[in-house]
Design goal:
Layout: H1 3-11, E1 18-19, H2 37-45, E2 59-64, E3 71-81, E4 85-92, E5 95-100, H3 101-105, E6 136-137, H4 146-177, H5 180-185, E7 190-196, E8 205-209, H6 223-228, E9 235-239, E10 252-260, E11 263-268, H7 276-283, E12 290-296, H8 299-313, H9 315-322, E13 327-328, H10 346-357, E14 361-365, H11 372-385, E15 390-394, H12 397-404, E16 431-433, H13 442-447, E17 457-461, E18 472-477, H14 485-492, E19 495-502, H15 525-529, E20 540-542, E21 545-546, H16 551-561, E22 567-568, E23 581-586, E24 591-593, E25 596-598, H17 600-616, E26 624-628, H18 631-644, E27 652-655, H19 656-659, E28 664-670, H20 689-697, E29 700-708, H21 710-714, H22 726-736, E30 740-743
Parallel strand pairs: 1-3, 14-19, 14-20, 15-17, 15-18, 16-17, 18-19, 21-22, 23-29, 23-30, 26-27, 26-28, 28-29
Antiparallel strand pairs: 2-3, 3-4, 4-5, 6-13, 7-8, 7-12, 8-11, 9-10, 9-12, 10-11, 24-25
Length: 752
């Protein structure tokens, strides 16, 4: 019912309390609005300490003072009387007397239980109440009026439209700079060779794929979708057989109208074409060697627009997103369930309790290694026990599968995952994973490809939640800081209550139009509603005990990004004969490769460090990870590791953005930038530059090495005054603690 009532119940001592005897109080109506007694009684009924020891049918309801929430040492007893219905028992001169619930609810005596309901708050909290969050959280930064509210939703819709336009522009530029064959090899939607079938049918032009391009292992029915990543409804560019002998309008935009086996039907976007007759005549001839490249898959954007409209039309969610309602803590899920995971720490337990009580919003800030996933699994288990249907979402398939299966394998189950407690584990609930058969996680794809009956818990990406046709009591949205407000609206529109979990000190959502995102639409729902000046600043809890990193690795991120709030939960040992955290200062040179950056000196040094870790530190390749900001550097490092180390192909190498959410025993970070001008690109941007460094450093457990040109990094002129000193501070920490190593490129024992 409320955090305050929960605290009062813990303080109340029935053995020393007395049944209330009204002296000067009467049951004459004094209130126009009845106190919501039903909820108070229901909440009390879930607590054994409020069961009367001598009267089995009595539910004890403590009384507080007339004008405060201080306990009075008295109580009333609720019971369901056979003749009189729902009544409250009181002491009438040594005898028991009763008053019916409806009469009691508008009486002056009802005022002495009002603070047990979250709709009412005392002027001052009582001495026994100790909670990190308020009993009732009003909006602290609401949108001011109806015009602002309408503007907010208009901006969400405009943001989606702008993202669509930006994606079209990006894909058009990508097609101009490459070939359909190369794009297909990169996994981009493209068909390198098509034959025109001539005359259109109903204005639709038909093309057939050359059989020689098709892997016959695939079902012909889905071959275009599975092999070429082209789908019905896609916006595409149709490329001519030869630029020299084709109308100037090519490549021309079209929409995939239908796909039948190897035949693709296109509706040409004639409105964008000037010389229509010339292009039409060209297309009506049977020709070979046309090509298609994807311009836009509109489905994710259409889903976002539909969800925004749905949220906008729901009074409760419209009020939540604009700050036109208060967040209270009156949900009964907490008392309808009991603790399942007895190994949670105090902050995790508190986060679970508050999340279950909150209505309709709660946020869990989970810095790296603090057990956010484990906490969310407990929230799901207890919500199901309380009778709630739960939707579990994240923006990426990897993040969803992390909650579903964690590190589970076919033979070993991760106890911190939903899988451990679902139908293939302890059997507490039925779990459905949307599109499980497409998952890259073996446990998910094999064990959750089918689901019998109605699931208690449904797991899906934010976008795939649009395919669901049911409503949910609770939405648990993990990695909520990586999803835009617009993407988050898709699952939000299907739930009554939302629990957001993430870390706004790590990477923000990806945006094609805002780099990095700055508007409310481009930011995450977590930031819009809670973090750093959000609408509700007091509806969340930060987990503060980290179990992942050696204390030397954790020190700088903790100091710089988390205000030294994190503490060690366990003793993580460093690798033998190695400092847990070191940096190598190397003055190589950067070069630009396809709009990305590469630094060959750092590539060689990273390969050398990785080789030493495998040879001397007794680590396997799967325990080592390499992180870099740039795709070109990641590609170069992969090639070098494959040539330089026998098992180098098994070392995970990826960009910072792709590595978020992962961890390794040992991490090597290559920062790449090295130039006389001190230009650090997006590493020096004030909004997401520090977040990238935070993500990179906090992936490591026992060893972290930073490879970089500290002259360039410390000279950054890209950041604001607040953030320009980030790398300077890190350099000072490394130098003052003896962790800085100077390296000359010519002495690296790895060939160029």
């Amino acid at each position: 019912m409320s955090l305050l009532f929960e605290s009062a119940i813990g303080k109340f001592d029935l053995s020393s309390a007395a049944l209330h005897s009204p002296a000067d109080e009467t049951f004459e109506p004094v209130r126009d609005d009845p106190i919501p007694i039903d909820g108070i009684v229901e909440y009390a009924s879930y607590h054994d300490q409020l069961a009367h020891p001598e009267k089995d049918d009595w539910i004890v309801v403590p009384l507080h003072a007339r004008n405060s929430a201080a306990l009075s040492g008295e109580y009333l007893a609720f019971t369901e009387h056979a003749l009189h219905g729902d009544v409250f028992i009181y002491d009438d001169g040594g005898d028991y007397a009763s008053v019916d619930q409806d009469t009691f609810a508008v009486s002056s005596l009802a005022n002495r239980v009002r603070f047990w309901h979250s709709d009412y708050a005392p002027d001052d909290p009582p001495s026994y109440f100790d909670s990190p969050i308020a009993e009732r959280e009003p909006p602290r930064n609401p949108l001011s009026d109806d015009n602002d509210t309408d503007t907010f939703f208009d901006e969400l819709e405009s943001f989606v439209q702008a993202e669509m336009d930006a994606q079209r522009d990006e894909n058009r530029a990508k097609a101009a700079a490459s070939t359909p064959e190369a794009l297909r090899a990169e996994g981009f939607g493209a068909i390198p060779s098509l034959a025109s079938l001539g005359q259109p049918e109903d204005g639709v032009y038909r093309f057939r794929i050359d059989d020689g391009q098709v892997d016959r292992q695939h079902d012909t029915y889905r071959v275009v979708q599975s092999e070429f990543r082209i789908f019905e409804g896609n916006e595409v560019l149709l490329h001519p057989p030869s630029k020299e002998h084709s109308p100037d309008a090519f490549p021309i935009p079209a929409t995939v109208d239908a796909i039948e086996g190897l035949t693709v039907s296109l509706a040409i976007d004639w409105y964008t074409i000037k010389n229509r007759s010339t292009v039409g005549a060209f297309l009506r001839q049977k020709r070979r060697d046309f090509a298609l490249t994807q311009l836009l898959n509109p489905v994710p954007y259409e889903r976002e627009l539909a969800a925004i409209a749905r949220v906008r039309d729901r009074d409760d969610q419209r009020a939540l997103l604009t700050g036109d309602t208060a967040v209270t803590f009156g949900d009964t899920a907490g008392v309808k369930s009991s603790q399942q995971d007895v190994e949670l720490n105090q902050e995790q337990e508190l986060a679970v309790s508050c999340a279950l009580l909150a209505d309709p919003l709660f946020c869990i800030h989970g810095p790296p290694g603090t057990g956010k996933t484990r906490t969310l699994v407990e929230v799901v288990r207890r919500s199901v026990e309380a009778g709630d249907d739960v939707l579990v979402c994240a923006d990426s398939n990897q993040a969803v599968d992390n909650l579903v299966a964690g590190s589970s394998t076919a033979t070993e189950t991760d106890d911190r995952s939903l899988h451990a407690h679902a139908q293939h584990g302890a059997g507490e609930f039925v779990l459905r994973r949307v599109n499980a058969s497409r998952s890259s996680n073996e446990v998910v794809s094999t064990q959750y490809a089918t689901c019998d009956g109605l699931a208690d818990v449904v797991a899906a990406t934010n976008s795939s939640a649009a395919t669901l046709e049911r409503e949910f009591d609770v939405l648990v949205l993990d990695e909520a800081t990586q999803a835009t407000c617009t993407a988050s609206c898709i699952p939000l529109a299907r739930a009554d209550k939302v629990i957001l979990a993430g870390d706004h000190k790590q990477l923000p959502p990806f945006s094609a139009t805002e780099e990095p995102p700055e508007s409310a639409a481009g930011l995450s729902l977590f930031e819009h509603l809670y973090a750093d000046g959000g609408i509700y600043e007091g509806v969340g809890i930060q987990l503060r005990t980290q179990y992942r990193m050696h204390r030397d690795i954790a020190w700088f991120p903790n100091s710089r990004f988390y205000d030294r709030a994190l503490r060690q939960g366990r003793d993580v040992t460093a690798l033998e004969d190695r400092s847990a955290f070191v940096s190598y200062d190397i003055g190589g040179s950067e070069e630009t490769i396809d709009h990305s950056k590469r630094n060959d000196a750092e590539v060689r040094l990273v390969a050398h460090i990785a080789g030493e870790l495998l040879a001397d530190a007794d680590l396997s390749s799967s325990e080592v990870g390499v992180i870099t900001p740039y795709t070109a550097q990641a590609n170069a490092i992969r090639k070098k590791l494959a040539r330089h180390i026998d098992s180098g192909r098994d070392i995970s190498v990826d960009t910072i953005d792709s590595f978020q959410g992962s961890e390794k025993v040992a991490i090597v970070i290559s920062l790449v930038r090295s130039n006389a001008a001190g230009e650090t690109g997006f590493l020096g941007r004030p909004i997401d530059g520090p977040r990238r460094l935070n993500v990179a450093m906090t992936r490591a457990q026992r060893f972290c090495a930073i490879v970089g040109d500290w002259y360039t990094l410390r000279s950054s002129a890209d950041g604001t005054d607040e953030d320009a000193g980030l790398y300077d501070d890190l350099y000072s920490f490394l130098e003052n603690t003896g962790r800085l190593r100077q390296v000359e490129p010519e002495f690296i024992p790895v060939p160029k």
